[in-house]
Amino acid sequence: MLGNGSDELISLLAMACDVPGATIVSPVPGFVMYGVSAQLQGLKFVGVPLTADFELDEAAMLGAVAAYKPAITYLAYPNNPTANLWDDAVIEKIIEAVGRQGGLVVMDEAYQPFASKSYIDRITRHGHVLLLRTLSKFGLAGVRLGYLMGPIALIAEINKVRPPYNISVLNYECALFALEHQEVFAAQALELIAQRAMLLEALGNMAGVRAWKSDANMILIRVADAAKTFEGMKSRGVLVKNVSKMHPLLVNCLRLTVGTAGENVQMLAALQESL
Questions:
Q1: For the chain, how far is it from start to end, CA to CA, in angstroms?
Q2: Which of 146, 30, 34 lies closest to 80, judged by CA?
Q3: pTM higher than 0.90, yes or no?
Q4: What are the residues whose beta carbons fall under 8 Å from the beta carbon of 27, sequence distance 6 or more?
Q5: What pLDDT, in 10s, does the model give residues 127-183?
Q6: CA 237, CA 247: separation in Å to the nearest integer?
Q7: Is-contact 238 251, C-beta < 8 A?
Q8: Which of 157, 159, 105, 98 is nearest to 132 (CA)?
Q9: What HEC string does the chain produce?
Q10: Domains in the chain, start-ordered, CATH in brackets?
Q11: Lowest mean pLDDT among 34-48, 119-133, 193-207, 233-247
């Protein structure tokens, strides 16, 4: 099922699952649209904090599933803004627990082009698991085309709330053209992965900076003073994302986007000068 970006599909999932008492559960910090879609649709949203190292809190997640019996449980793979992949064994336990409660699990693989693993070959094992992807990180952010995969019966039900003309001719013609030249986009992703490795090595050698391993096109770092560092980098012509106030676990954290080789050199210099 196609959507006007992943955001529309997330909204349609909330609409399709809007039954009395319905709840959406997701680890936090995570993608803000999971909570926003619940709020706009009038559903309860329960954010389950990650551990201090941004891993899934297995006991807390299983406890939330048991307590709230969520209609939808979102698991981003890799997560945004932490950029990490979570433990597959813990994910499997959560999927099984949600299945026993009669809910859906949505694996959000928005950043899959940069990730070392995917869940696509495993969703057929579970009849209640859907996989969400987007062409944004494939290389077509402005085209706005997301897609939802899963069992035919589930997709058919969610498709009932989809607007009949949500995807334009230009949307899908752009997507088809890109897929005919996917080797170009794959090469771009490989270059970003190489640049990410360079950035992680440089950040690991930079005093006053902690960087977390990334499977996305972004890197989460912690500095002594995120606001000061953010403003310093901005004054030097480099804009990053200050996520330090998004969640208590993200205190003094910034999210760096992996760019071209030249952009990355400029970003590292601005970061070093702004610490």
A1: 45
A2: 30
A3: yes
A4: 47, 48, 49, 50, 56, 57, 61, 75, 76, 79
A5: 999 999 999 888 888 889 999 999 999 999 999 999 999 999 999 899 999 999 999
A6: 26
A7: no
A8: 105
A9: CEECHHHHHHHHHHHHCCCCCCEEEEEECCCHHHHHHHHHHCCEEEEEECCCCCCCCHHHHHHHHHHHCCCEEEEECCCCCCCCCCCHHHHHHHHHHHHHHCCEEEEECCCHHHCCCCCCCCHHHCCCEEEEEECHHHHHHHHCCEEEECCHHHHHHHHCCCCCCCCCHHHHHHHHHHHHCHHHHHHHHHHHHHHHHHHHHHHHCCCCCEECCCCCCEEEEECCCHHHHHHHHHHCCCCCEECCCCCHHHCCEEEEECCCHHHHHHHHHHHHHHC
A10: 2-180 (3.40.640.10), 183-274 (3.90.1150.10)
A11: 119-133
Tell me the residue type at 129.
V
Measured in whole angstroms, the distance separating CA 207 from the mean position of its chain's CA atoms is: 29
Structure tokens at 202: 């440089």
- The first and second tokens of residue 77, run together, are 């793979």
Under a CB-based contact definition with an 8 Å cutoff, are residues 3 and 172 in contact?
Answer: no
